[in-house]
Design goal:
This protein has a single domain, classed as Rossmann fold (3-Layer(aba) Sandwich), CATH 3.40.50. 39% of the residues lie in helices and 15% in strands. Strand 1, helix 1 and strand 2 form a beta-alpha-beta unit. Helix 4 packs parallel to helix 5, helix 6 packs across helix 8 and helix 6 packs across helix 10. The radius of gyration is 20 Å and the shape is globular. The termini are far apart.
């Protein structure tokens, strides 16, 4: 099977590629250490990674498969339709897993235009390229297009509300979630109008290795290690459902291989935590790993002004994908977070250049509507 993965140098995309090609993060693997080519689990699987290499893209995330003869990367902006169609004609994919996206809510507040271009226009161009390629080779019925989206398209839950599921009405509240909602609707329209076999997944918040340090968990880990203040929005009582990234990758591949075209699958980790709970747990885990008194780093927590339109709670009901695709998350939050903290402590080679060259931990998303 030939699979085109968009955004494969990103956090979730790289996890999907490693899974498809039979690899996983290596403890302490450094950029200058030799990496043996990885034989894929399924020798028929070949991956074309379509990634335009934005600020959040990291080649180290796919270092374990980069030398595999079953993997190659093409540097293309998914909003560039002619370049996409040319790449598809040369690779002749049997499926697309679409993960390329601008994904940081705070950045969408400060600069929504990039989110519209990539998440909306880029998805449109990718749908067209996939459709034309499938029609050109007369494989439309067997083709698969898996679109990876977010639970944020559903808006905000109250404390007593039932979790989101596949029937929840859309109610996006940020430029990011609005752009992802639009892309979801385009994907459904291409299935209904043109017969492109599409599948949508909506996931909860991911965490794990290779997560760009602008996001909550890696940012708090690295600031805690450095002994820096830990900024928490509001009072830290916003709630998220946390999903370990490798569990999510398995869900995406399950949707590709066994999902029903036209269907949507909600994917969650069944691990609701307040942001404050998450940060406190990180503090305690870093204390343990560094041999310090547990609880000491909690003193670094500082409450800062909330961001505009900060949704109170997200939660996912994953009953459908559990029932129909036999997927369940295998990593509980406590174990997954401990593994994540250890990975960052062992992987300074990966994150140190990012902090020095691309993102220094500054606050984003401070724009306020006039």
């Amino acid at each position: 099977m030939k699979i085109a993965v968009t955004g494969g140098l990103g956090f979730i995309g790289s996890a999907v590629i490693r899974l498809l090609l039979g690899s996983s993060p290596s403890e302490g693997e450094g950029p200058h250490e030799p990496v043996e080519p990885v034989e894929p689990v399924d020798v028929r699987t070949r991956v074309m990674n379509i990634d335009k290499v934005t600020y959040a893209a990291t080649t180290g995330s796919v270092a374990s498969v980069a030398e595999s003869p079953f993997y190659h990367h093409v540097e293309i902006d998914i909003a560039d339709g002619p370049a996409l169609r040319d790449a598809f004609a040369r690779f002749e994919p049997d499926a697309v897993i679409h993960l390329a996206a601008e994904s940081h809510v705070d950045r969408s507040i400060d600069g929504p235009d990039a989110f519209v271009r990539t998440n909306v226009v880029g998805t449109y161009e990718l749908l067209q390229a996939a459709r034309f390629e499938a029609e050109r080779r007369n494989v439309l019925d067997s083709f698969r297009f898996v679109h990876v989206s977010t639970d944020e398209v559903f808006g905000s839950l109250g404390l007593d509300d039932a979790p989101f599921d596949e029937t929840t009405a859309y109610d996006p509240r940020s430029p990011y979630s609005a752009s992802k909602a639009a892309s979801d609707h385009f994907v459904r329209a291409w299935h209904e109008t043109y017969g492109l076999p599409t599948i949508i997944t909506n996931c909860s918040n991911n965490y794990g290795p290779f997560h760009f340090p602008e996001k909550l968990i890696p940012l708090m880990i690295l600031k805690a290690v450095a002994g820096q203040p830990l900024p928490v929005y509001g009072r830290g009582d916003n709630i998220r459902d946390w999903l370990y990234v490798e569990d999510h990758a398995r869900a995406i591949v399950s949707a590709l291989r066994r999902g029903e075209p036209g269907e949507t699958y909600a994917v969650g980790g069944n691990a609701e935590r307040t942001n404050l709970d998450v940060v406190q747990t990180i503090c305690d885990q870093v204390d343990v790993e560094l041999g310090d008194e547990v609880g000491g780093r909690r003193e670094l927590i500082e409450f800062v002004a909330d961001r505009p339109g900060h949704d109170l709670r997200y939660a996912i009901d994953s009953a459908k994908i559990r029932r129909e695709l036999d997927w369940v998350p295998s990593t509980d939050f406590a174990d997954g977070l401990a593994r994540t903290v250890r990975w960052y402590l062992d992987s300074e080679w990966w994150w140190r250049p990012l902090l020095s060259e691309r993102y220094d931990g500054q606050r984003l998303g401070v724009a306020v509507a006039s």
